[in-house]
Amino acid sequence: MTFKRFDSEGVVVLLIDDDRTTMMLLSKVVVAMGATVLTASDGARGLSLAHEHKPTAIICDYHMTPVGGASFLAGLRNSSEDDVSKIPVIMFTAETDEATMAKLNLLGATECITKPFNPKGLSQTLYAVTHVCHMSSLVEPPDFPCLPNAQGWKDPGQDALPEWSQEMSVGNDTLDADHKAFFELARNISEALRHKDDSHFTIASSMNMLGEYVAGHFYREENALRALGYNNLAQHHHKHRMFHGRIKAIAEAYQHGTFSVVDNLPSLVTEWLRQHIMVEDMQYKRWMRDSAVDNRPLGLLALEAEDKYSA
């Protein structure tokens, strides 16, 4: 099996796992991609290596002893060193329930991958997160953050937000329109955040609309992929659940008075979406057929999705 190699030299990936077999498999993938590997068997040692070597990316298991993945992630994100707190982290977990996904999202996991993992899928995810963060480090101030919820990062403003472009087209006008609407909504939220003191109602309304967009679009897209017999639907659904969990966690925190939690929301939405389209969605583009896509409004689809998943 061949893997896409990193574009630049000097990529360092820290692997944190207490299972030797998993560590060996991870190391083979990362080395084949052209990166240097650092290893740790628990979160405490991993945190020490992260501060010492400041790796390009980290892959970390969720369940470890004595210091597990959640504690490691919290420690990393709370680091006073920006070049440590913003390192992208891919979390490994066998748990796919919404509570776990929401917890990891809120702690600042860049991506989550379920066990047992697919080496090809892992390599694509690792390449994507390191590429995004490498590109963001080439400009000052950054066009977008590696980790939109990292401590100390401030939203770059509406003008710096990425926009939908033709290269993001998935070959269907309805799905493309959904994606465009996400980008536009992010810009509206960014504008409201410029006047946060008197815009709480606008922000709250936009958060509700974003939740509706997320639920309706994911439902539309997954139904189309299911109708087409798309073989990566389970992994695609998992990515959707991760993002939906993060949006829900942010909305709940905002509703309970933690208003600063939305400061980075526009960049979170646009950067996650851009990466998701260019990595995951492009994999189904050749499968897509207009006849498989439900063209009803997002709001109606969101209601159907809520009924289905709450039943």
TrEMBL record:
Family listed: Belongs to the hemerythrin family.
Cited PROSITE patterns: HEMERYTHRINS, RESPONSE_REGULATORY
Protein name in UniProt: Response regulatory domain-containing protein
Organism expressing this protein natively: Magnetospirillum gryphiswaldense (strain DSM 6361 / JCM 21280 / NBRC 15271 / MSR-1)
GO molecular function term, any single one: metal ion binding
Keyword list, A-Z: Iron, Metal-binding, Phosphoprotein
Response regulatory domain sequence ranges: 12-130
Domain of life: Bacteria
Keyword Phosphoprotein tagged: yes
Pfam families xrefs: Hemerythrin, Response_reg
One BP term from GO: phosphorelay signal transduction system
Residues that bear 4-aspartylphosphate: D61
Stored InterPro entries: Bact_response_regulator, CheY-like_superfamily, Haemerythrin_Fe_BS, Hemerythrin-like, Hemerythrin-like_sf, Hemerythrin_metal-bd, Sig_transdc_resp-reg_receiver
Stretches of the chain forming a coiled coil according to its record: none
SUPFAM superfamilies: CheY-like (SSF52172), Hemerythrin-like (SSF47188)
